[in-house]
Amino acid sequence: MKVVGLVVEYNPFHFGHLYHLKKAKEISGATHVVCIMSGNFMQRGEPAIVNKWARAEMAIYQGADLVLELPVCYSLQTAQFFAYGAVSSLHLTGIADYLCFGSESGNLPLLKAIAGILLNEPEEFRWYLKSELNKGIPYPKAQANSLINYINKHTDFHLDEFDIHKLTHNPNNILGIEYLKALAVLNSPIEPISIKRIKADYHSDRIKGKIASATAIRKEIFCNNGLNVAKIVPKETFMILNREFSKGTGPISSENFYPFILYLLRRTSKEELLKVFDVSEGLENRIVRESFRCKSLSELITGIKTKRYTRTRIQRILFNFLLGINKNDVYESYQKGPQYLRVLGFSSKGKELISKMKITSRIPIITKAAHYKKIKSPFLKKMFEYDILATDIYSLAYKNPEKREQGRDFFMNPIILE
Asked: What tens digit of pLDDT does each residue of 67-95 get?
């Protein structure tokens, strides 16, 4: 048995994801695929277009053997915390031989070099960084300049300002570097593999061919009723999307949660807002001021964001606020690591992985939500109850009121495809 791990969101699963999955198996020679997948809320600070079980089903149809949920305490955070939670989960299964991730670069040795410098911060690199900051240069630019100086002097790579900007600003490169840092911190034996991203850019919102970004697919669904989606996603993905939409359990967008976010903002003090992760330096004042003026979530985010606080960062803040995830929760999750492995779905080959995990896993495996109550760990219960709450709040956005009941985690079993 040889196992490759993937960190995914599948929002929704498309042909680019299929390429990644097949290429990961091909390069690694893996016999089995395990996915660590975000639940109902995504790393960019937005809800999934359909729920976590539907997306796990999409993955298994296309060749994933086991889908495990990344707890929302990690899935809704910055690249560092997201990557650490996902890689830790994979590491703690005890079954993964490889971690395969997509990147705009595809240059694994270079990504490793950058990850090592940022993680270990050699003395000379720190000196470069201090010198740049003393010139009054903003931190991101100072860090980029320092990386160029250090890499060009101490490695065989030769980078300019344009190169380093691409490497440290493109989303998949950023996550890739954080995955590599997490593997190093964990001293994990898992071997990393990077596949160069092809065709559609991560941020692209236009459909130009068979491989389109998830962003473009979601835009097509919301703006044009998904008329062209059938051509750019696997047939099973299209079938599942249609099924969920017909049941009134999708498509879900950020705007569905605006009334709840606005209600909470208008009754929450600035002092309480300061407890939310990533809120600092007067941002709470902007959030409160704009909450009394804006009429949509998009307008609210636009009113709050600045050069320092990007749209994505504001989105994450607002959805962490909605779920009640505060700074202490995020830091504690990072310090203690994942507390369980929640099974969302598996294939017949996935059963083999679960059987092996029962021997190798360093943390409990949860297949039925009610089982978490039997585990005597206060922090495990706290982390799992955030996942339950995330599902309960997510279901409030369903168009079908009969599907908005509380406790869906307790009566939804893992998706099984033989």
From this structure: 999 999 999 999 999 999 999 999 999 99
Contacts 24+ apart (CB under 8 A), 373-381: 375/340, 377/339, 379/332, 379/336, 379/339, 380/339, 380/340
> What CATH number was assigned to the domain covering residues 3-104+175-198+337-417?
3.40.50.620
Mean residue pLDDT across the chain: 93
Stated pTM of the model: 0.95
Give the span between the Cα atoms of 51 and 395, in whole angstroms: 9
Binding residues for ATP: 7-20, 102, 172, 197-198
Q: Where are the domains of the chain?
A: 3-104+175-198+337-417, 108-169, 254-332
Residue positions in the annotated binding site? 7-20, 102, 172, 197-198
d(CA 145, CA 139): 10
Please name every residue paired with 417 in a beta bridge, in sequence order, or none if there are none.
Answer: 347
Q: How many residues does the chain have?
A: 418
